[in-house]
Each structure stands twice: as structure tokens, then as C-alpha cells.
Amino acid sequence: MPETRSSVLLGRAEEARRLGRRLATVREKAGLTQLGAARALGTPQSTIAKLESGRRQLRFLEALRLAEVYGVDCREFGPDDAQRDAS
What we know:
Elements: H1 5-29, H2 34-41, H3 45-53, H4 60-70, H5 81-86
Helix pairs in contact: 1-3, 2-3
């Protein structure tokens, strides 16, 4: 059965929320607040909040910069092993 436009959009929204939760987890493991991460990136704290809530899409160059600030590889932003196994 083909996916409807609304189901595709809902799927993307859920993926954005999942990515946001992962970004928050990685940031917290790095010992940073949203404000600290924002300052390191030279961006408003609201940008970090929107990324972590899934209300804003993460751009490729932002992902690279976030990974550098958090001291991780960009792959840390992807699903963890349990999420990959469930897919």
C-alpha cells in the first residue's frame, strides 16, 4: 500500500524528534548546556533548542560543527545500536 503524504510527513517529524533527542543526549554527555553549545557554535541558544526538539532540520555543516564541539564523530547523531537493530 503506498504511503500517503501525511504518513510521510509524520514519519519525517518523528525522525526529526528522534534526531533531536540524540543531539541532546550527545550534548549532555559532552557536559554542555544548550547555551554552552550555542556559544561554541556562535549561534543563538534557540537554534540548539529547535534542533533538539525536532522543530528545525539539522544541516550537514551544522552537524560537522556540532560533532567537533561535542568531541564526537557525526555518526554519534545517528541511531544507537538498539534503534538500528529494531529497524
